[in-house]
Amino acid sequence: MSVHASIGVKLGAFELQAELSVEAGEVLAILGPNGAGKSTLLRALAGLLAIDRGRIAIDDVVLDDPADDVFVPSERRPIGVVFQNYLLFAHLTAIENVAFGLRARGTPKVEARNRARAWLQRVGLDDHASHKPRTLSGGQAQRVALARALATDPRLLLLDEPLAALDVGTRSEVRRDLRRYLESFDGMRVLVTHDPVDAYALADRIAILDAGRIVQIGTINEVTAHPRSRYVADLIGTNLVVGTVKDGVLTTDGGTRVVIADALPGRSFAVIRPQAITLSGMTPADSSARNVWSGTVGNLDRLGDRIRVGIDGPLSLTAEITAAALSSMGLRPGDVVHATVKATDIEAYPA
Amino acid sequence: MTPAAPQRQRRNRVGKERLPAPALFIAVLAITFFALPFLGLLWRTPWSDAWDVLTEDSVRTALWLSIKSSLGATVFAVFFGVPLAWLLARVDFPGRSVVRALCTLSMVLPPVVGGVALFFSFGRRGLFGQYLDRWFDFRLPFTTWGVVVAQTFVAMPFLVLTVEAALRQLDRRYEDAARTLGGSRWYVFRRVTLPTVRPALIAGAVLAWARALGEFGATITFAGNFPGTTQTMPLATYLALESNPQEALVLSLLLIAVSFAVLVGLRDRWLGGVDGPAAG
User: Does A274 touch chain B (CB under 8 A)?
Assistant: First the structure.
């Protein structure tokens, strides 16, 4: 039991090309910035958009294969979708919303109502059965949307930004509840989000989607330990350099040299942790550190008692120093500064 | 006075829309322009005879015919107009703007011209009417069905345009949601699309009904003026103006009262304050 999808979609100038698979019982989060193609990917899986190339299959049943001229429309796919903003039908009550899918598939009225009520009970909203959606809170609306999507027993549950519509105050509570409900569903789940916190909290594996491509896929630890895109590096707050390694030196495409202790030759990524960077006002005359880059101070962002210092130079870096160090050095945006990193503090891995 | 009070007063004043004085003056003139004819009518109404006129058989017949035919025309306008509006709003086909213009032409045409056109197409010797007559022994002109056809012809565009606009504004993601839940296109149309555009559908139906009720030119041209079969209230009113102006006044007032009551009542009950799904 699994979903296998290879999705190629062309929408004007935008092109999506993504391969992914989800096993039974697994939650896959698709994480990426706005405009990366997350919603397009979800619509293709849901059957609201026909793919141009590739193949989508659930449990070995082909749902979309343009080469074979197969396309199963949305209403006949074994899926459930929780949409962004939930899209509850405003003219129907909560229980009628949940029963909608059953009624649409021809379940008799009384049975559909009973099953819908059982679902509302599972999400703790049976006392809201006759409420109209506009009287529900954001978290309640999300639970009704979840019950509505699950009531038809889908094999694959798709969630599009399930927490984006909530305000910050209730989000963590709703996230915790959502995690519980997702765990009680044994099908496959694909979650689309731009918020890494949602992805970490809800998913087993993460796929990073950037500009229409999946640039990285794996468990949360795998993805964050070895970022393979600027987007992921920014998410976890570290510096990522890409270049070609030869004789222990990584040369970026811009020609900057980065000395690395143990590096295999070839195309590589290198991670420089902001805490590993030492800043000094003058050129360090005599240092064991093998890497010294000059630059000017850019943004200064305070994080508790630590300051993240942006440095614009041959490498665009972020260093993290203490507030005390900042005040003793008297750094201001625009000042020239030298960043020093020991070769042993840089981790490199093949690109 | 507490410091909070003057602040609240000021905020209220900012919140209220204030029209520049010249525009306000012109707007009041416009209201007067609409109100004066009715005042004139009320002023000349022979209140003592009103009840006698209203209970006359001929008036009751005309009123009943008007109600019957205008409701019939509204049913036809909804039955044919909703699919037409859906086609115009959703299906991109070549010549769509030409089709839309054709289907709303009768709105801007002088109704008499519409009546003439109907006569030469559905009349006994008309392009299609001759076959209706020959094959089915069915004649439209000078029958109540002819009245209904004439009224539908001029009234349906009001419904089509209203519903089309609503279908265009509808958030189609709700229909997507319904489809992922297993709804066929027809099920989604009935259970999601139609309820969502219901306020516009009601508004369009009311406009179409009001237009059908007031229809004069196309009716008298195509269906004639026969008491009991084709003489609707507007026709009876026009005729009475020549023979018995007092009666014409009472009939006019009755038409105004019915239309006004429906417009006011429906707007408050169904058109104002109805939330679409977007509000959920």
Answer: no
Check pLDDT > 70 for residue A12.
Answer: yes
CB contacts, 8 Å: A90 with chain B: 196, 275-280
Instruction: Answer yes or no: do A133 and B174 touch at CB < 8 A.
Output: no
CB atoms within 10 A of CB A62: 14
* A77 touching chain B per CB within 8 A: yes
Q: What are phi and psi of A318, to 5 degrees?
A: -120, 125
Q: Is the C-alpha dihedral spanning A176, A181, A182, A184 positive or negative? A: positive
For the question of an ipTM over 0.85, the answer is no
Handedness of CA B179, B185, B191, B192 (dihedral sign): positive
Residue A40 half-sphere exposure toward CB, CA atoms < 13 A: 23
Measure CB to CB from residue B176 to each of A48, A104, A152 and give the nearest one. A48
- Are residues A87 and B196, on separate chains, in Cβ contact within 8 Å? no
Backbone angles phi, psi at A167, to 5 degrees: -80, 160
Task: Determine the Cα–Cα distance for residues B104 and B156; give it in Å rounded to an integer.
Answer: 8
**For residue A148, which residues of chain B lie inside 8 Å, CB to CB?**
181
Can you give the pLDDT at residue A172?
Answer: 86
How far B156 CA sits from the closest chain A CA (Å)? 26
- The region of weakest confidence among A216-220, B15-19, B159-163 is B15-19
Q: B176 and A160 in contact (C-beta within 8 Å)?
A: no
Above 60 in pLDDT, residue B269?
Answer: no
Asked if pLDDT for residue A167 goes beyond 90, the answer is: no
Between A90, A133, A152, which is nearest B181 by CB? A152
Q: Is residue B277 very low, low, confident or very high in pLDDT (cuts 50, 70, 90)?
A: very low
With a threshold of 0.80, does the pTM exceed it?
Answer: no
CB contact under 8 A, A87 and B174: yes
Strands A239-246 and A61-65: unpaired
**Binding-face residues of A in 101-120 toward B, CB within 8 A:** 101, 103-105
Contacts of B230-239 with CB under 8 Å at 24 or more apart are B230/B65, B230/B142, B230/B143, B230/B144, B230/B146, B230/B147, B231/B61, B231/B62, B231/B65, B232/B62, B232/B65, B232/B66, B232/B69, B232/B70, B232/B147, B233/B62, B233/B63, B233/B65, B233/B66, B234/B66, B235/B62, B236/B58, B236/B59, B236/B62
Dihedral (CA of A33, A36, A38, A40) sign: positive
| A133 in contact with chain B, both atoms CB, cutoff 8 A | yes
**Residue B183 and residue A75: Cβ atoms within 8 Å?**
yes
Contacts of B194 in chain A (CB under 8 A): none
Q: Above 80 in pLDDT, residue A283? A: no
Sign of CA dihedral A216, A218, A222, A223: positive
What SS3 state is found at A247?
Answer: coil
* pLDDT band for position B279 (cuts 50, 70, 90): very low
Residues in chain B with CB shorter than 8 Å from the CB of A91 are 195-196, 198, 277
Contacts of A239 (CB under 8 A, 6+ apart): A233, A271, A272, A273, A274, A277, A315, A317, A318
- Percent share of chain B, pLDDT over 90: 48
Of residues A173 and A100, more confidently modeled? A100
Tokens standing for residue A63: 């749902």
